[in-house]
């Protein structure tokens, strides 16, 4: 899975501003509650930004909407990673970057890592990865088969999935802003068959008084909710969500 440029921009812009806590006393009061962290178990640590980090990061953007785009993307991919880890029955631990985690004789100072990243832990080994890479990294690190399964979709699941995409959230904010919150992003649904596979069609757009304006057309495989395709308006091709993101990151 490809890394999106937005996350890297956030990390790169702020890496020079991040303060470490390595010189602070590592008392038990400053340690994360470690009762769920067994050194003989496998788990994934989700590293979250502190409120102070977010406040400082926001100041690096001239346009506040750009900051919220970064945060929405990061939260979305973190949530996706959480679902994937849960399906693989691996424990999850949440901690902020100013915390120190103690696992047996190992002390892990999270301030040396980027917020919105993950630490894979197994038998004394630790690996730092990004949420968008979890489906590639987790099976290799833990030596397990990729347990991601095809998930049967219904239209409610498909709509919820599309509505929670960062790009669609940006579209929703755009419609709210141009209509002074009097109008909201609208959806039109349909079905079709592509390459002998059944798909839901979900169009996002603005439903005005005189006409409907389409923003994006998504295709969701009815047999696998994770398979999302997008209608590329310039070429007219139906392409993967990842490829579409590369060429349309500045659309909204």
Automatic annotation (TrEMBL):
To which species is this protein native? Chryseobacterium indicum
What protein am I looking at?
Answer: Lipoprotein
